[in-house]
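User: Can you help me understand a structure? I only have the sequence.
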Amino acid sequence: MEIVELAGMNRQELRAFIDEVPSIWEKKSGVFDRGMNPLLRNFGEKGNLLFGVHVYSIGSQGVAVILTEHDNDTNRATMRIHMTALVGLGGPSEWVHGEKKLRDAIDECKEETLAVVRAQYSGDLGWRGLSFKCPSCGASYFVSRRLVDSEGKTRCQNCNRIVSAVAE
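Assistant: Let's start by predicting it. Here is the structure, written out as tokens:
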């Protein structure tokens, strides 16, 4: 089990942040890694605490369970990451490498993702804000800002090459 602490985040931002976890995984994974597909996302409240259970499949590789807890008084959230590998000789087992990989990806991207979430709720962010044309295959796409790195680069959805995204 890995734990990620998120400070200074309200409940609405936490819910939006959880929606971005598959994008964070995809952004930090390799080309041939499987994506995260949400199977269950559920929140419940008790007093000033918000609890969440989020279950994702990772291709046929494994299952990720993220347990969230948010304290409204302190605006702190805790994410507990549990992953189970479904492949291997011994059958299902704890996927320690996957847990660390997801924790590191969330730690690395949390400030950037939180800024995007806050901009989204303030109305400053147009989701069709970035476009690119691949010089290799000629494909043109609109891409959300969360899939663009700090240098303005993204992957072509057609040929998987790294290209520059241009703000519109």
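Now, to help you interpret it: Confidence is low (pLDDT under 50) at residues 123-128. The longest strand covers residues 36-46. Let me know which part you'd like to focus on.
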